[in-house]
Design brief:
About 55% of the residues lie in helices and about 0% in strands. With about 70 residues, the protein is mainly α.
Length: about 70
């Protein structure tokens, strides 16, 4: 048996025995985008009400004359 076939067989065995969980594999994890989106929105709203945003808002920048 070639090395790649042996590795594939070993990987399948580990996966079937539960040693490697499926959610660690690409494209099989739960979708956390909605949760992350909610957290990002909450952090953005908090930032918009902060003094840090007030400092940035009052800052004048040079007009961009590029592409």
């Amino acid at each position: 048996m070639t090395n790649s076939k042996e590795s594939a067989k070993n990987f399948s065995m580990l996966l079937e025995e539960g040693i490697i969980r499926k959610n660690l594999l690409p494209n099989t994890a739960e979708d956390y985008s909605k949760v992350q989106e909610k957290n990002d929105l909450a952090q953005y709203k908090k930032f918009m009400q902060s003094f840090a945003y007030d400092d940035i808002k009052e800052c004048r920048v040079r007009d961009y004359n590029g592409d």
